[in-house]
Design goal:
The protein has ten helices and 22 strands. The protein is an alpha+beta fold and 433 residues long. A hairpin with a 2-residue loop joins strand 9 and strand 10. The longest helix has 29 residues.
């Protein structure tokens, strides 16, 4: 089933919810028409939506390549540490031509911004001479600098960028990552979704076969190719009989996520300060893997590759940074009101120093195996008045919910999404019969 498209400059969910409502009505009509095939139809866009590793910068130019040596288009991805001068020298393009391009009014500023990750296209004529340099100034603007009779000519091409609203729905049969991709979500969208629910759901450990998911999200397309995924606008995940919801809403000028009742999903403290780490040891008595005797494990461990970033679980002050006995390289953050968190066995610390303030989500260190550890993992402790408690079970403090006029606006905004996801859930249950 083709995913619906809304061609607009959608930027804020609060002001554009009527677009989503329109999409929902269209999709609703299509669902009624093909309900018997819903389970498979939901997955049809996957072949298109998963094309996120293709190069997007120069699609039509690629088609003009020919097999003649020294002619056609040559493509260069600027490497780390390279400048435009390095690229010209590496590919034996005349520096004189580069200087002519740099002198052109307006082009110098664009060329000076070329850095690592930028894709450049060079058109070579039949004499092996550089004819055209092409690159994207931004997502909607392409620049062509052409040599004509020894002079540089600039051509600015406006490229239409389409903002779309896409809908994905599915049942977990193998894993969330696999089945979400089958339903049309890309890796980028899946990561965004995991980030939205990271305070409540461990996407590796918590989701099981038979759980369902419904996601409304933004996409940006250009010339038939996806540029990148946009924000998750609304989502619902049903796992182990419990329903988790998320709705994007702008509060005080900042886009945030709330549940169906206007409660913020963002907690004062994160339950899991690492992305996609595998829970390898729980809180409680265990046989210590190094000491070989029974000992209280006062935290939880997340196995992850060395160098995986470790995030601050919440805003606070770094009260300790250094080597701490069996913890190895460790960091302790004081979050106030008697709460603190400890992060152990790091391979290296982040850029923050003892006494500095950190914001929730910033990188404070990297996974390692320093101290008493048999392999790379994060040892994470949650403390209340210096007493360790189980971070997987403790009730996390919440910020203030929406109220008054903001709550009323929020309720009106999310009503179409709630109705549509109810319908999507009904159709999934019907398809499972």
């Amino acid at each position: 089933m083709p995913h619906p498209k809304i061609r607009s400059a959608l930027s804020r969910w609060t002001h554009e919810h009527w677009f989503v409502a329109g999409v929902f009505s269209v999709v609703g009509t299509m669902v009624i028409a093909i309900a018997p095939g819903m389970a498979n139809a939901m997955r049809e866009p996957a072949s298109i939506l998963q094309k996120e590793n293709v190069s997007l910068a120069l699609p039509e130019a690629r088609k003009s390549q020919n097999a003649d040596a020294g002619t056609g288009w040559e493509y260069v991805l600027v490497k780390k540490g390279q400048t435009l001068t390095h690229v010209f020298k590496e590919h034996n393009f005349p520096l004189k031509t580069m200087r002519q391009m740099m002198v052109l009014p307006g082009a110098r500023k664009d060329l000076s911004k070329i850095g690592p990750g930028k894709e450049l296209a060079f058109e070579i004529d039949t004499n092996g001479e550089l004819k055209t340099l092409r690159f994207d100034r931004d997502e909607g603007t392409r620049i062509e600098l052409s040599m004509e009779d020894g002079k540089v000519k600039e051509n600015v091409i406006t490229r239409e960028v389409d903002q779309e609203v896409a809908i994905a729905s599915g049942v977990i049969k193998k894993s969330f990552s696999y089945d979400a991709k089958q339903a049309g979500l890309t890796t980028s969208s899946i990561n965004k979704l995991a980030d939205v629910f990271k305070y409540d759901i461990d996407f590796v450990e918590d989701l099981n076969d038979g759980d369902t998911f419904h996601v409304v999200y933004e996409d940006q397309w250009r010339e038939g190719q996806r540029m990148h995924n946009g924000a998750v606008l609304a989502a619902r995940i049903v796992t182990r009989g419990k329903t988790y919801t998320a709705y994007r809403f702008t509060k005080d000028g900042e886009a945030q996520y709330f549940d169906q009742n206007g409660q913020p999903l963002k907690k004062v403290l994160m339950r899991i300060p690492i992305e996609f780490g595998r829970l390898s040891s729980t809180f409680g008595m265990r046989n210590h893997p190094v000491l070989g005797r029974m000992r209280m494990h006062k935290g939880v461990d997340y196995a992850a590759p060395p160098g995986t970033p470790i995030m601050a679980a919440g805003d606070g002050r770094v009260s300790f940074l250094g080597w701490r006995n069996g913890y190895g390289r460790a960091v302790i953050i004081d979050h106030g009101q008697g709460r603190s968190t400890l992060y152990g066995h790091m391979s290296a610390w982040g850029k923050y120093k003892m006494g500095q303030h950190v914001n929730q989500g910033v990188t404070i260190g990297y996974v390692g195996a320093s101290g008493l550890a048999t392999g790379p993992h994060l040892h994470y402790e949650f403390r209340i008045k210096d007493i360790q408690v189980n971070p997987l079970k403790v009730t996390m403090p919440k910020p203030q919910p929406l109220s008054g006029p903001q709550l009323a606006s929020f309720k009106a905004t999310i009503a179409p999404a709630i109705a549509k996801m109810d319908s999507m859930e009904h159709n999934l249950q019907f398809a499972k019969r």
